[in-house]
Amino acid sequence: MNNPSNPASRQVAVWLVLLAAAGTFALTMGTRQTMGLFLSPLNTATGLGIGSISLAFAFGQLWWGLTQPFAGAFADKFGAGRVLFAGALLVALGTFITPYMQSTLGLVIAIGVLSAGGAGMAGPAVLMATASRMIPAEKRGMATGIINAGGSFGQFIMAPIAGALMVAAGWMNAMQILGLIVLLALPAAFLLSGAPATAGPATAAAQKPIGTREAIRTALRTPSYLMLAAGFFVCGFHVAFLATHLPGVIASCGLPLQFGAWSLAMIGLFNIIGSIAMGWAVGRWRMKSLLSLVYAARALAVIAFLLAPKTGTVMLLFAAVMGLTFLSTVPPTAGLVAKLFGVGNMATLFGIVMLTHQVGGFLGAWMGGKVFEATGSYDWMWYIDIMLAVGAALVHLPIREAKLVRPAMVPA
To answer: How many angstroms separate the CA atoms of 293 and 396, rounded?
Structure first.
């Protein structure tokens, strides 16, 4: 699929790859982002406490990030198909067996290791790097926006489905049905089993990739890369806190379960708009400026939410605004990695950035439960989120977007 015989077939091939990548992300991300709905039922069934169950969710955030550099390196070397196939199987298995877990360790293994690890293998590092190798550089922003929107569409669809299944069939059956639905991603692995990175992208500007270790050493010596990772840490904190605890925030306001499910769905729906708009914008404005704008908008939105009355309408409006900024950071972040270092080792280098995202995600998910147990509310989490968002808006400003040319990276 990398070398179609004519422009029409090439266009079809590119769209097939984009749809396969977006569909895979929709199923894995959609399933993961509905897990917050099951936090309270898991607590009731196991009696472990919100803090202990939040630890399993938090470990899942961390493990999702830890798997991505290794999955990316494997995909860079051998191709993405095997990685994506195994990832989808693990997500399905972990989700299916979670209702049988009665201990914190069991939940960590099911949610945190199997399901989250599989979602990391079939996550944005591998999916976006695969797409980026097949299309011209000027269209990569829109491609990453489309793939990112796929994850959001999955959340928009899966959250109401999960809520309806919980009401109709009980939370245990609902979770197992979600696990089976993930298996629909398996055929996409064959469409995305293209050549590894050493074969080069489909454009004339192909570069000869350097070794993985040298690429990592180069990146870790680059201040702009480190600042980009620091900002993505804040994104992970924010996203994981919302995905894990927004249903709890809504329940603590005395609103019914449906508002929790529909708030997650609103985040997914409006993140489709935000992701596609950001994919369009990265080809027209500086990516570091767009990232600063997104983080500043988050801080202002949380401040407005804290000052507003906590009604159902306010919750849905807040979820919509959060959705516009939820994962719209991914296209410009992935774009900056590709712009700084090329696409030869992009899955590995973007995977490392995703790891910092998920370290933040671990803290967002875990601290949300601990703060609620200690204070009886989530207010302090919102205060921390505001301060981190302001810091992220500032840390992106010094990033240098000019492509770094190093001797080892000169085009072959």
So the answer is: 10
Residue-wise pLDDT for 229-273, tens only, equals 999 999 989 888 887 788 878 887 777 767 777 787 788 788 888
Residue 55 half-sphere exposure toward CB, CA atoms < 13 A: 13
| CB distance 30 to 268 below 8 Å | yes
Q: For the chain, give the mean pLDDT.
A: 80
Nearest to 344 by CA among 190, 137, 145: 137
CA 306, 311, 315 angle in degrees (round to 5)?
65
Of 259, 254, 273, the residue nearest 315 (C-alpha):
259
Which residue, among 120, 126, 121, 122, has the nearest Cα to 196 in the 3D structure? Answer: 126
Q: Return d(Cα 56, Cα 388) in angstroms, integer.
A: 23
Please work out, in degrees rounded to the nearest 5, the angle formed at the alpha carbon of residue 271 by the alpha carbons of 246 and 232: 75
Task: Give the pTM.
Answer: 0.68
Domain spans of the chain, in order of start: 11-193+210-400
How far apart are the C-alpha atoms of 282 and 86, rounded to whole Å?
32
Name the nearest CA neighbour of 404 among 353, 317, 345.
Answer: 345
Angle at 253 between CA 173 and CA 255, to 5 degrees: 50
Is 103:48 a contact under the CB 8 Å cutoff?
yes
- Residue-wise pLDDT tens digits, 328-378: 888 888 888 878 777 667 777 887 888 888 788 888 888 888 888 888 888
Q: What are 66's two structure tokens?
A: 């830890």
H or E stretch including 255?
A: none
Structure tokens at 25: 């992300």
H-type alpha helices, 201-286: 212-220, 223-252, 257-281
Provide CATH code, domain 11-193+210-400. Answer: 1.20.1250.20
Give CA–CA dist 339/341, Å, rounded. Answer: 6
